[in-house]
Amino acid sequence: MTNSDSKQIDHVVAEMRKEEQTRQAGYREQALKLFPHVCGRCTREFEGKKLRELTVHHRDHDHDNNPPDGSNWELLCLYCHDHEHTRGVQEQRSAEAPSERQNRPSLAHSPFAALGDRFKKTK
Length: 123
Fold this sequence. Notes:
It is built from 4 helices and 2 strands. The chain has about 120 residues and is mainly alpha-helical. The protein has a single domain (about 5-100), classed as 3-Layer(aba) Sandwich (His-Me finger endonuclease fold), CATH 3.40.1800. The model has no long low-confidence stretch (mean pLDDT about 80).
């Protein structure tokens, strides 16, 4: 890859990131105007500097689905938003038998755990 190619790729990536930030800022500002500044799960109220801890959750998990009436959004604090996105994983694990859980990677899965073994095999 030439230096020119690398610069072009960097430019495209920077533009994509800028567009994503603009899109997110747009629907976040819209949601903050539509809804009270309260977490939809834990009901904590947010104001001032703490308002940045309030996030927009897409109910259908599609970040491109942003109806102007806000029907696909709910305001969640950082903690409740994180919990919302891990809830399905937790429910799935609870429903599995213990033997099934052992065969699947966990949230603490380390992709580099067996890296040393792979290097030993290639020598």
